[in-house]
Amino acid sequence: MKKIFFFVIVPIVFLIGVLVVFMTITREKPPEGIKLALVDTVATNFPKDEKLARKELGNAEKSLAKLKPLKPYIVIDTHANRIYYRTEDSIYLDAVCSTGSGSELIDSVTKRKWVFNTPRGVFKIQNKIKDPWWRKPDWEFIETGEPIPKVESDRMDGNVMGDFAMGFGDGFFIHGTIYERLLGINVTHGCVRLGTDDLHKLVELTPIGTSVYIF
User: Fold this and answer.
1) Domain residue extents for the chain
2) What confidence tens digit (pLDDT) does each residue in 150-205 have?
3) Which of 65, 168, 88 is nearest to 121 (CA)?
4) Dist. CA 89–CA 207, nearest whole Å
5) pLDDT digit string (tens) for 106-120?
6) CATH superfamily of 73-214
7) Cβ neighbours of residue 115 closer than 8 Å, sequence gap 6 or more
8) pLDDT tens across 22-39, in order?
9) Closest among 98, 177, 92, 105 to 134, alpha carbons compared
10) pTM
11) Phi, psi of 151 (to 5 degrees)
12) How far apart are CA 193 and CA 164, in angstroms?
């Protein structure tokens, strides 16, 4: 009789107890704060009616239309190292380029730090310079292990930027290069390099004020 009690009745009573507790828990109402949070989320994320939804959709379409370029524009893909001069439907130039390496340089003396990325975002062609000269910044001398010159003329180099440079802001340019074998590789200090023929074509096609989209 004792064996029956321990091996049959006790387990049955235990299971009944577990079921009662489970049913009690599942029947409990969620705390009031959680309920209110769920209601607020639904009210915030969904329009109250179809008319309001259509109005919000229309506003979004108008905002997107304002961002749509009306004239040909430049697109620079820093991952694939490609540059395009195009409209929504047509591509007038598709060329290989080189963009920022993403490397870092720290001056061991002053602890100044540079990160050599091509900036991402929306810009405009601000100027065109024929036969440009490059003014070497401090990091150029630190990178090559040379002393920073005290005479300004010692910073100037008229050979490395090619035949043209087109500035798009904050000291960044689309320009030529004497290292055409490195086109297609992320090797620059932030500027965008092009081969001679493609650079000439882009300069000819692109008016000042052209939008530049870089990603």
Assistant:
1) 2-46, 73-214
2) 999 999 999 999 999 999 999 999 999 999 999 999 999 999 999 999 999 999 99
3) 168
4) 19
5) 999 999 999 999 999
6) L,D-transpeptidase catalytic domain-like (2.40.440.10)
7) 102, 103, 104
8) 444 444 444 444 333 333
9) 177
10) 0.70
11) -100, 125
12) 11
Residue whose pair of structure tokens reads 């300004």 in the numeric block: 152
- The radius of gyration of the chain from alpha carbons, rounded to an integer in Å, stands at 32
Residue type, 22: F
Task: Tell me the three-class secondary structure of the chain, residue by residue.
Answer: CHHHHHHHHHHHHHHHHHHHHHHHHHCCCCCHHHHHHHHHHHHHHCCCCHHHHHHHHHHHHHHHHHHCCCCCEEEEECCCCEEEEECCCCEEEEEEEECECCCEEECCCCCCEEECCCCCEEEECCEEEECCCEECCHHHHHHHCCCCCCCHHHHEECCCCCCEEEEEECCEEEECCCCHHHCCCCCECCCEEECHHHHHHHHHHCCCCCEEEEC
